[in-house]
Amino acid sequence: MEYLYVLQQALVWIVTIFWLYQIMVSLCSLIKLKDKPMLENKNNRFMAIIPAHNEEEVVGNLVESLKKQDYPKELYDIYVIADNCTDSTANIARNAGAIVYERFDATKKTKGYALQWFLKQKIEENAPYDALCIFDADNIVDKNFLKEMNKKLCQGEEVVQGYRDIKNPTDNWITAGYAIFYWMMHRLYHLARYNLGLSPLLNGTGFMVKFETIKPEGWNTQTLTEDIEFSLKHIIKGKKLGWATDAIVYDEQPLGFKQSWIQRTRWTVGHMQCIKCYTKELAKGVKEHKTLTALDGLFYIVGSIPMLIITLALLLLNFVIYAGNGMTTAELLMNCVRYFIPTFFLPILTAMFIMWLDKKPIKPMLKGLMCYPLFMGTWLAINIKCLFKRDTTWEKIKHVRSITINEVEVKE
Questions:
Q1: With left for phi above 0 and alpha for psi between -120 and 50, is residue 151 left, alpha or beta?
Q2: Which 8-state DSSP code applies to residue 199?
Q3: What is the pLDDT of residues 56-84, one digit of tens each?
Q4: What is the C-alpha separation between 411 and 166, in angstroms, rounded?
Q5: CA separation for the pair 30, 195 (Å, rounded)
Q6: Which residues are registered as beta bridge partners of 46?
Q7: Residues 297/285, Cβ–Cβ less than 8 Å
Q8: Which helix (H) or strand (E) holds 347?
C-alpha cells in the first residue's frame, strides 16, 4: 500500500505540473502585443485551394465568398480539387468561377492525398504564386482573409493559421460544443502561444503556407490529421507557425451525433497516428534545437492521449487504494471531485469569459454552454474507445448547411 501511495503522488505531480504549465501559457492570451514589423510592402499572389468530395450543396457558397475578397482579383486564383466526386461538385464549382481539377483514386481518399496530388503538379509547373491558402468545401470566408494573410506574409511568416469560426453555432448542442471548443482553443492555445513566441498549430482549414516552403517536399502527409502532422513536421525542423486572428473563415459543424462521433473519432485516431510517428522526432528536436517551442510541441503530443492514460490510471489507483483500506470514502470522493470539476464544469466558466473577451453573443449559446460538459464527456468516451479499437478508414462528413457569407455578416 505504501508503494501504491508513492505512485499515486508521483502521478498527481505529473498531472499538476502539466496543467500548471498549460495555465501559465494560456494566461499569455490576455496580453496584447505590438504587431510585427513589415519586412516588405507588396501584394502577393495566392492560390485558394479547396479539396472537395461530393460537396455540391456548399462548395458554390465558398467560391462566391472567395470571389468577394477585398484583394486585387488578378492576384489570386480559386482551385477546387473535385476528389473522387460522384455528384455535381465539379460543375457547380466551375460555373461559380473556380478552376477545377478532377481526381479519381479509390485507394487514397483523404484530403492529404488530394493536396499532395494537386500541389505536386503546381510545383512541377513552377506555378507563379507566392503562397497558397487551403479551405474545406463547407467554409465561407471573410472578405479580408487574403488581405490579412498577405500582411502576415509581408511580416515574414511562412505558415499561418487563420481564425476558424463557426457558421452554425446555435443549431444544437453539438454545433455549440464545437464552437465553444474552437473559441477556447483559438485564444488559450493558438493566440497564447503566438504572443509568447511559441508555435500555434494548423487547425484543418483556413490557413496559409508560403509556396517556397512547400516546394522541397510537397504536401507530404500520411495520417488522418494532415493539419497536425504538417504542424509537427514544421516544429521538428525548429520553425514556428503563425497566427492571424483577423483572417476569419467560417466552418460548418455536423448536426447529428453520429456524424460528430465519426468525425471526432477520425481526429482522435489521426492524433494517435501522429503520437506514434512523431513523438520520438519531437524529442530529438528538443535535444537538437533546445528551444521552448520544440518542448511545447512535445507537450502537445504527450498532453493528449498519454495524459488521458495517466489520469485514468490515477483514478483507478485511487479505487485500488480505497479497496485496500488505504483511503476513506470521503477521501475517495474528494479525489474524484478534484478531477471531474476541472474537467467538465470549470470549462463552462472559462468559455463564458473567453466569449466575453472575444465579444461572442452568450445568450444564444446558454443551452450549448450547459451541455458543454456532455460534449466533452462524449469526446472523452471517444478517446477511451480509440485506446482499444481504432479504424483508419476515412469516412465523409456530410455538409448540408448552405449558408452564404452575407447571412453570416448579417447575424454579426
A1: alpha
A2: -
A3: 999 999 999 999 999 999 999 999 999 99
A4: 12
A5: 9
A6: 76, 131
A7: yes
A8: helix 346-357
6 or 264, which is more confident: 264
Owner of C-alpha cell 488521458:
308
Cell of 96: 461559380
* Cα–Cα dist 206/49, whole Å: 10
Q: Which strand ranges, in their side-by-side order, compose the sheet holding 207-210?
A: 99-103, 76-83, 46-52, 131-134, 207-210, 159-166, 242-251, 140-141
Over residues 4-53, the pLDDT tens digits come to 888 888 888 888 898 899 999 999 999 877 788 889 999 999 999 999 99
Q: Spell out the residues 6+ positions from residue 219 whose beta carbon is closer than 8 angstroms to its own.
A: 112, 115, 116, 119, 226, 230
Domains plus CATH for the chain? Answer: 36-169+198-256 (3.90.550.10)
End-to-end CA distance of the chain: give it in Å, rounded. Answer: 59
Give every CB contact of residue 412 below 8 A, 6+ residues apart in sequence: none
- Cα–Cα distance for residue pair 141/146, rounded to 1 Å: 9
Q: Look up residue 63 and give its three cell numbers.
A: 467560391
CB within 8 Å of 277: residues ≥ 6 apart: 222, 223, 229
